[in-house]
Specification:
The chain has about 210 residues and is mainly α. It has 9 helices and no strands.
Length: about 210
């Protein structure tokens, strides 16, 4: 009985922590849209989230950690229902679907992301953190698309996928169409250029693929 009580308490605490994390992330995004990123203070974020600054510290130790929390939340939204692989489906098509789901999840946060795009080059610490989060996200996108990420070949595939995503992201930030047609076209074109790193190579039964030339 005692064990059950402690487990229930942990479950409630975990749920509360997730709720507070979302409040902090949402408050940060709203403030970025109006106040910018570089001058944004943690005390202002705490006030906007309606939380004591100590509670913000307990959930996120820095502004950079809050951004990483956003990226993690987007990852979870995309990975919650990954597309199932179909017979003869190209790995590129699965990855395309996942990345477009990512753009859909980011759509409500476009104003804040536009500010970050302009200001992060002047904040190298945050830019490095964002870059590391992007590579981690792309690794998960490839894994969800059943594209191997191990070894040298996998590391290169992750970096190429990240470059393709960033290229499409620049188009997405200016794409105000309902169906994101320009974004889809840009992403598809970039993934086609690098799909040799994703798909199987004919004549290899082991499942291991040589590095394409």
């Amino acid at each position: 009985m005692a064990r059950t009580g402690r487990t229930g308490g942990r479950g409630r605490n975990s749920g509360a922590a997730r709720n507070e994390a979302d409040r902090i992330i949402d408050a940060t995004l709203a403030l970025i849209s109006t106040e910018g990123w570089r001058r944004l203070s943690l005390s202002a974020i705490a006030a906007a989230a309606g939380l004591p600054i100590l509670q913000v510290y307990r959930v996120f130790h820095s502004k950079q950690a809050i951004l990483c929390g956003l990226y993690s939340r987007i990852d979870q939204a995309v990975l919650a229902d990954p597309p199932a692989a179909e017979p003869d489906e190209r790995a590129r098509d699965r990855l395309f679907d996942l990345m477009m789901r990512r753009f859909d999840a980011l759509q409500p946060h476009k104003p804040a992301l536009d500010v970050l795009r302009r200001e992060l080059p002047g904040d190298p610490v945050t830019a490095l953190c964002a870059g590391a989060s992007l590579l981690r996200s792309m690794r998960w996108m490839l894994e969800a698309a059943e594209i191997p990420t191990g070894g040298v070949r996998g590391a290169i595939a992750v970096k190429l996928a990240a470059a393709a995503y960033l290229s499409a992201l620049r188009v997405w930030q200016l794409d105000d169409s309902q169906d994101l047609a320009r974004t889809m076209a840009a992403l598809d074109a970039r993934l086609r250029r690098i799909e040799g790193w994703f798909g199987p190579v004919p004549g290899r039964r082991s499942g291991r693929e040589p590095i394409p030339v």
